[in-house]
Structure prediction request, 198 residues.
Amino acid sequence: MKILNLYCGIGGNRKLWGEEHQITAVECNEKVANKYKELYPKDNIVIADAHEYLLDHYKEYDFIWSSPPCQSHSTTNYFTQHIRKRPVYPSMKLYEEIIFLDNFYKGKYCVENVVSYYEPLIKAQKIGRHYLWSNFFIPVIKQPKSDIGGMNHKSGYNTANKKPLEERNAVNSELGLHILNRAIGIVLDNNVKQSKLF
Prediction:
């Protein structure tokens, strides 16, 4: 499959995806993108605005994973607003992408974000600390207690101290694999059904 991994970070969601897919990963932070490239050298890494990249390239892929920045939606944002002296608007890029993919994209997609401090504006499925929006059903799985990051490899960071934000924000790798496998199963099933028609 050709996979687009938007807002890839250091690739927590991608860790267990293997090497049999053609994966394009998009990340705007060059330092974080370089760390992703070290971990997944066979992937095509693009340093760009993922939100804009999606508009220009969505038709090129069989499966799209998007994990837009979650900070403005998180409960942490809500409870720490006193530190900033005022609240922050939730970024609507999250909902822009869900609406866009749902109406224009013909492949399978999953948009992931944290459980927010407000009721989602578009109904989402909840698994662990994640909200998921997709155009296919994702069965609930129990995630490991060490849900933050799911990163067990040597990332180059001193993990004796608090993990860096980009590692703490990584999606659990088992959840990432679970979602990809579900998408692949549906795509393969649809291809078999179509081939039987001809």
Remarks:
- Residues 146-161 have pLDDT under 50 and may be disordered.
